Amino acid sequence: MPGSPVSAEAFATAVERVAAHKNRTVVVKLGGSAMEDPAATEACLKSVATLNRFGVPLVLVHGGGKPIDRAMAEAGLVPKKVAGRRYTDDATLEIVVRVLHEINANLVRGLEELGIVTEGVDSALIGQKLTLGGPAGHPIDLGHVGSVTKVEITHLPEEGDERQVAVVPSLALDVDGKWLNVNADTAAAAVAGAYQVDKAIFLTDTPGVLRDRHDPKSLFPKLTQAECRELIASGVIDGGMVPKVEACFEALEAGAKSALILDGRVPFSLLDVFLHDTFTGTEITR
């Protein structure tokens, strides 16, 4: 229960477990759906703050799908998906940039209220326009949608220095200094690879990878990349879970040691990973 006393032994064990991750960088992706519950978002920021105080370097990468949809509706725009990605024309891009900057400022403010040295980094990702192959080899036009070619977070301190939490929106700048809309899972995977992180953690609106999407008890606690590919081929992993799992692949292939899919709607699901040998979610490894 909240407010219940913690035994000295339990406290010592918890501190020892979290401290074991000191100086081992972690990337956390906070999705727009996972941010819909203010209590869950607050718990996520408290978890980030706790890990930061124990010397765990953190980069928080965020999207903003549902807030962007609402802002587009208010502007009389209808979201359009092409090949599973948000088609981003000029008007859509303007809203995407504005909403993501607003979310970024709110997350930074929330962490600062918890006493954490924080910086919003809206130019951390360098990218190029993303084109997908279509029928007969013709490229699919996604508008101002990008892929990440380089990650530049220059203020991650060396061991022993005061550590800031970098808060990065899923936006990239191209060589001409123009914004590109980047899938948040893809952005987090790029950051995870760039820093060879210990963990890439994707907070989503699902418990993890399920054998039966309607049965939370059918959760896979651990999967290898090969097992995931088999589940994709058989249709067990389908729909919106496919890009999440593929983002885990990207993080692993770029150098992350493990990738985790957790339910960001569950308060403190992030911190739970560092306190227990088992947790609710799916860990994907090479």
Q: What fold name goes in the CATH topology slot?
A: Carbamate kinase
- Estimate the helix proportion, in percent: 25-40%
CATH architecture: 3-Layer(aba) Sandwich
Strand order, largest beta sheet: 5-10-2-1-13-15-16-14
Rounded to the nearest angstrom, the distance between the terminal CA atoms is 37 Å
Number of domains: 1
Q: Kindly name the structural category.
A: alpha/beta
Q: How many beta strands in the DSSP annotation?
A: 16
- The CATH class designation is Alpha Beta
**Average pLDDT:** 89
Strand content is 15-25%
Question: In sequence order, what are the helices and strands, one letter per element?
Answer: HEHEHEEHEEEEEEEEHEEHHEHE
Give me the Rg, rounded: 19 Å
Specify the overall morphology. Answer: globular
CATH-level-4 superfamily name: Acetylglutamate kinase-like
Uncertain stretches of 5 or more adjacent residues:
157-161
Main beta sheet strand tally, sense and closure? 8 strands, mixed
Count of discrete alpha- or pi-helical segments spanning 4 or more residues: 8
